[in-house]
Amino acid sequence: MWFNKRFLNKISLLLVARQSFGTRIFRAFVSFIVLVSSAFTFFSVYSQSREVEQNLLRKGELLAKLLASSSRTGVFAENRDSLRDAADGVLAQEEVRAVEICSVDNRQLIGEQKTLSQEKIPIALTQEDKEIAAKLHDSLSWEVTNDKNTINVYKPVTIETVSSMGEALYFDVVKNKKLEQIIGYVKISLDRKVIRKEVRGVFLKNLLIGVIFVFLGIIVIYTILRRVTKPLTRLAETVRLLGKGTSSEKIPVESQDEIGKLAEAFNAMTEDMRKREEEKLLIEEKLRRAEKMEAVGRLARGIAHDFNNILTTVEGSLFIMKKKLTDNLPLMQYTEQMQKSLSKMRGLVHGLLTFSRTQIGHLSPVDINKAIKKLMPMLKSLAGDTVEVKILLCDEPSVVLADPLQIDQVLMNLCTNARDAMPEGGVVTIKTDAVSIAEGHPVSSLFIRPGAYARISVSDTGTGMDEKTREKIFEPFFTTKEPGKGTGLGLSIVFGIVEQHKGFIDFTTETGRGTEFLIYFPLPLNNHEKQVVGTE
Ligand SMILES: Nc1ncnc2c1ncn2[C@@H]1O[C@H](COP(=O)(O)OP(=O)(O)OP(=O)(O)O)[C@@H](O)[C@H]1O
Ligand SMILES: [Mg+2]
Known about the structure:
- The protein has twelve helices and 14 strands.
- The chain has helices spanning 2-70, 72-77, 80-91, 127-139, 166-170, 192-244, 258-324, 329-355, 368-383, 404-420, 467-472, 490-500; strands at 96-103, 108-114, 120-122, 143-146, 150-164, 176-191, 364-367, 387-392, 399-402, 426-437, 451-460, 504-510, 514-522, 531-532.
- The longest helix is centred in the N-terminal third of the chain and has 69 residues, at 2-70.
């Protein structure tokens, strides 16, 4: 048993480890989801904020282009009023923080900035502006600069001039060429706050999506893992309890997958182990009893032999005394008393010798059915008026090699006990049949040779026996009867006789319902049709 417990504990530990493995998988999955979701949020925010910036820049460029073209006349004429109108129109845009319009020689014609309260305040031309303006001269295109709070878009204000080129005098190809001439430039400063605001919005949106994704992911993984680990946890718990020996419950098989198969295999294994354990306990118990009976038998044999010798001496002496005391009547009475006691003593010694199997009788073929029928009147008178004796004999003759007197003794002892167990009356049923103990039958492995047996069943409807009584009934001098009513040798004698005939004895009993004794005597081969024990 300790081996099995250790084995079960090991499996339980393995499964518990699996449970923590499930937790580890859960953690790994959650980390993975959080990682994926964070990466997704980061890249999404990054690309979207880039797009916001690009859009803002595009808008800035468009506004700068528009301002540059609408300011052409104003710059040319240095008309600050018309330029202010155009600049105000651009400054009215939410994204625009400042507008500057300058002449080509870096004279600021318009320079306005929006404050937080949308007030317009003038701004000064910076050294950087001048440097950019110089670049615009060469490229005639855009220039964009970035600083902490703004994105600045510079666009040249140009007019077209037509010039006759020297080459045109010689070549007819190009007569007049349109030339763009820079007359000033505009600068639009775009507020980065707009980007930050939009990026914040994008970030929050993506964060929300990420959180929802992580949350849903956790729920899905938790549900899946729970489905997988729940049966495993239950399996581990059952195995743990089985290992402790506090439960013999079966593991529920909830699915047909690997876990279901594991549970099935485990159930089959525990069932197998339980059966083997039961068989082992049964055999151990029988062995223990057999050893005990053997020891008690040895003791009884020793005592009975010595008593027998002493009794012979005492009886001899008494015989001589009786002869010599023929005229002494008062003393004769004592010798009669002694004779009676000696006879009782002889009976006991005889019983002990029968129990210890030293009283081997003369064996001859005995038909058990006939023996029972012959003994019926005797059994009936033994049973008394309140107890009915029924016989159910098998049809075929059950001939065994036995001592007929001892067969009678067995039947009488069993019937006496049955009667005593039914003080209020009842029924004793004597049945016979033939059975065969199959090879591999649990009881056959240790004590009983497989083969054919004539079986006598003596059952009653009496008090039955409790666990304590059951343990000791075959021990000599064990009795539950009042002193003087029973010696406690009846079943010991039956036991001895059956053992002597190489048979065996079995019994079932239930308190308040009755007892059945089964006596098996080996049958000579091919004597009968046999029933296989356990398949009746
Ligand atoms: N059929 C039975 N029903 C209930 N108890 C029984 C039955 N047969 C035996 N017993 C119990 O087993 C005990 C031992 O029986 P056993 O026949 O060996 O001795 P006894 O009947 O007490 O005395 P004795 O047979 O020597 O007069 C009995 O005292 C009784 O408690
Ligand atoms: Mg008895």
